[in-house]
């Protein structure tokens, strides 16, 4: 084949040398706009996994790269006058220029043709090529020649950064956070050769402008950074190698995702690699890793399918399919880390104490979890667990400290034995709203299973407030008596507390039981629906009546009556359901609230009725017991509420006296497009807790102790609500404690023999030799 790699970065060079090494008969050229053995940039970071692959595919270049590596295990954070360090993180760095020079030299040894100081306008400049590699970076001319084909989605991120260097050598990956009169700056620092360290300075656009950095030249910016970071620099100077850039050299990061990576232009197949196809923020240092991995995978597919020209389409299709998965995973982690640094000032630096700030930073990408930190640096993590336990009110001795999810938590006078909540989950098994033996056994078993707080499903305040005929209610004494039966059992038989979530289905009511057709309207026996506006949930749903003032007064009285009955039950916690498109949620979302009166339009107007309900129930609910608000923090639909809107509503509820926000999302519109994934709703909780300053519950795809410990330890939530895992395992909390080796958590005395056997079996499984 005739192959042309446009762009002599890591992706183009590495692919060229691998293909030439494996099939010397290929004609391969790499065309680069810079001069021979010249490049810009400071150090780049590699992963151990990438190096394993490089040793396998080309031991010669891998050995030379490893000889030039600088390896470090420690991360050090300077913050609020403290210097914290943790070990076991295993980074390797190399100068970008050194890396490219090694790859260039290896290409020359293999007879790859290197062409320098040549600008290429498009793939059409090489009509005789069978395969054109677009490895020409973020501003790829190859990609930009076919925007309708490659569908680039480029987003310019808000923070500013400047990429500098220093001759001071650092023995740890160092982060230095500095507060100024106009906001926070942070430095990302790491050594990449025996003389130089990378020194990236980052800040918000607001701080950048307020300090006049947009009006400074590079020398002025360097002087500013040297003064700001003088403590960590200890007299060393900063330097730039971006003199070719006019002005200040402060940049914005561009996040790139392409809808397609390959194209046939009529003569040649064209494929993108590296930054031309995707970018990953420097906060996790994976840009070079992704480029090398692209080159390896494309080569691997030629090895599998064959190196003939007619195999190119299949190779490119499989390459893209495989690489998309890993790239998405890395980009998600990079996005989490990037967003952490973008909001670090107002969300974390201003609010968190140094130990928790350090933990939050270490786990910012959500790739590093609580137990992973234990593997990396057990001493550091156990020290942090002791700090967290003491902050939670525990007396810490010499024994193993309780991990965060098992520490107590108190709101008003209600103290939970741990941070795990059984989510409200609809069972559709009530008759006339009355709880029966199924509910007692279902919820009672979860209380015996070790959770700190037990919620039943949304409990409806009136018959026409139900989602289905099988939903729980709390509008009469018979229902309250059954609720009291549950509360008394839980209080007598376990350490758990009981919460009642009251709500009104609104336009999502009068539907079939879930297993008969979720959200589908009843064929008979339906009741009239009400909502903020006359907007049906589904096309075939009943059109609700837009509530008038009489309806509002009636429903408010229903919530008051339900709260009075909840008081009679002796329940510990009350939650007001303002999420998932139900009645109060329909007032909050612009997708469902089309009103033009004082209850529609602005955030204040849309929140007016839910807040009226809240004030009414807060006046009745005992002052020593908390009320939380279940809030949809993202409608996942164009024109709907976003996390920014949710933060506004959270502040309103906080100001009104709410104790906690239960952070969920979605189910407001059937046009929603949620982005699912592990802990996918935790960022909403993180934002509201740390920006609004109100406790939160995190929900959504939390399925193991490691998840809950990571969330709570980092301060992303105060409690974790677990749903489906509790359906599969009533004793989820007890079992998760055993899985992480925590044997001090008490089980019901009736189950103690099962506890011993369960823990013994786990220990045996952990030490058993793997089957051959």
Automatic annotation (TrEMBL):
Domain of life: Bacteria
Residue intervals of the FAD-binding domain: 3-328
InterPro entries per UniProt: Aldolase_TIM, FAD-bd, FAD/NAD-bd_sf, OxRdtase_FMN_N, YqjM-like
Domain NADH:flavin oxidoreductase/NADH oxidase N-terminal: 405-733
Keywords: Monooxygenase, Oxidoreductase
Molecular function terms from GO: FAD binding; FMN binding; monooxygenase activity; NADP binding; NADPH dehydrogenase activity
Keyword rRNA-binding among record annotations: no
Alphabetical list of PANTHER family matching this protein: BLR3436 PROTEIN, NADPH DEHYDROGENASE C23G7.10C-RELATED
Annotated protein name in UniProt: Anthraniloyl-CoA monooxygenase
Provenance organism: Rhizobium hainanense
């Amino acid at each position: 084949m005739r192959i042309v790699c446009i762009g002599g970065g890591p992706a183009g060079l590495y692919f060229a040398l691998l293909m030439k090494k494996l099939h010397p008969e290929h004609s391969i050229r790499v065309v680069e706009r810079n001069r021979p053995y010249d490049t810009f940039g400071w150090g780049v970071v590699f992963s151990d996994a990438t190096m394993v692959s490089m040793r396998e595919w080309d031991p010669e270049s891998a050995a030379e790269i490893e000889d030039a590596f600088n390896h470090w295990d420690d991360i050090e954070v300077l913050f609020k006058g403290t210097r914290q360090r943790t070990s076991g993180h295993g980074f390797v760095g190399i100068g970008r220029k050194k890396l490219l020079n090694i790859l260039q030299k290896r290409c020359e040894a293999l007879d790859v043709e290197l062409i320098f100081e040549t600008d290429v306008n498009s793939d059409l400049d090489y009509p005789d090529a069978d395969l054109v590699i677009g490895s020409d970076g973020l501003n790829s001319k190859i990609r930009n020649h076919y925007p309708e084909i490659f569908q680039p989605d480029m987003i310019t991120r808000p923070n500013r950064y400047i990429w500098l260097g220093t001759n001071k050598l650092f023995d740890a990956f160092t982060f230095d956070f500095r507060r100024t009169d106009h906001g926070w700056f942070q430095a990302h620092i790491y050594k990449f050769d025996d003389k130089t360290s990378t020194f990236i300075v980052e800040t918000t656009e607001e701080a950048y402008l307020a300090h006049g950095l947009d009006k400074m030249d590079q020398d002025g910016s360097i002087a500013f950074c040297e003064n700001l970071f003088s403590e960590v620099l200890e007299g060393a100077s900063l330097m730039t190698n971006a003199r070719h850039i006019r002005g200040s050299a402060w940049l914005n990061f561009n996040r790139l995702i392409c809808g397609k990576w390959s194209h046939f232009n009529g003569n040649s197949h064209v494929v993108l690699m590296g930054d031309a196809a995707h970018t990953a923020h420097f906060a996790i240092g994976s840009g070079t890793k992704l480029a090398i991995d692209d080159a390896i995978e494309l080569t691997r597919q030629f090895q599998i399918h064959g190196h003939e020209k007619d195999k190119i389409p299949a190779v490119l299709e499989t390459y893209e399919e495989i690489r998309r998965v890993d790239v998405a995973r890395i980009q998600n982690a990079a996005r989490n880390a990037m967003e952490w640094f973008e909001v670090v000032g107002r969300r974390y630096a201003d609010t968190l104490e140094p130990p928790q700030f350090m933990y939050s930073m270490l786990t910012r990408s959500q790739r590093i979890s609580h137990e992973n930190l234990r593997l990396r640096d057990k001493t550091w993590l156990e020290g942090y667990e002791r700090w967290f336990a003491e902050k939670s009110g525990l007396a810490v001795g010499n024994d193993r400290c309780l991990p965060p999810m098992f520490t107590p938590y108190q709101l008003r006078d209600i103290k939970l034995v741990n941070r795990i909540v059984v989510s409200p989950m609809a069972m559709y098994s009530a008759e006339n709203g009355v709880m029966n033996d199924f509910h007692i056994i279902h919820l009672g078993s979860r209380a015996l299973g070790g959770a700190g707080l037990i919620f039943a499903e949304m409990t409806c305040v009136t018959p026409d407030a139900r989602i289905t005929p099988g939903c729980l209610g709390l509008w009469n004494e018979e229902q309250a008596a059954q609720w009291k039966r549950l509360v008394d059992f839980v209080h007598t038989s376990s350490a758990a507390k009981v919460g009642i979530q009251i709500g009104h289905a609104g336009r999502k009511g009068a539907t079939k039981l879930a297993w008969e057709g979720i959200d589908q309207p009843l064929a008979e026996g339906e009741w009239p629906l009400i909502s903020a506006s006359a907007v049906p949930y589904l096309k075939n749903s009943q059109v609700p009546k837009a509530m008038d003032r009489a309806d509002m007064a009636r429903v408010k009285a229903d919530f008051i009556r339900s709260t009075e009955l909840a008081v009679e039950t002796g329940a510990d916690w009350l939650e007001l359901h303002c999420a998932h498109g139900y009645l109060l949620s329909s007032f909050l979302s612009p997708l469902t609230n089309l009103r033009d009166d004082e209850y529609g339009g602005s955030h204040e107007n849309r929140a007016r009725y839910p807040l009226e309900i809240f004030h009414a129930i807060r006046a009745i609910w005992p002052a020593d017991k908390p009320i939380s608000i279940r809030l949809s923090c993202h409608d996942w639909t164009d024109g709907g509420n976003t996390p920014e809107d949710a933060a506004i509503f959270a502040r309103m509820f906080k100001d009104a006296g709410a104790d906690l926000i239960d952070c969920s999302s979605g189910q407001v519109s059937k046009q929603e497009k949620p982005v699912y994934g592990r802990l996918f709703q935790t960022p909403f909780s993180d934002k509201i807790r740390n920006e609004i300053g109100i406790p939160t519950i995190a929900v959504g795809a939390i399925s193991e102790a490691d998840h809950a410990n990571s969330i709570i330890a980092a301060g992303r939530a105060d409690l974790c609500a677990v749903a489906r895992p509790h359906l599969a395992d009533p004793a989820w909390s007890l079992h998760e404690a055993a899985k992480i080796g925590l044997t001090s958590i008490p089980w019901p005395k009736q189950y103690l023999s099962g506890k011993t056997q369960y823990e013994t079996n786990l220990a045996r499984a952990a030490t058993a030799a793997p089957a051959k």
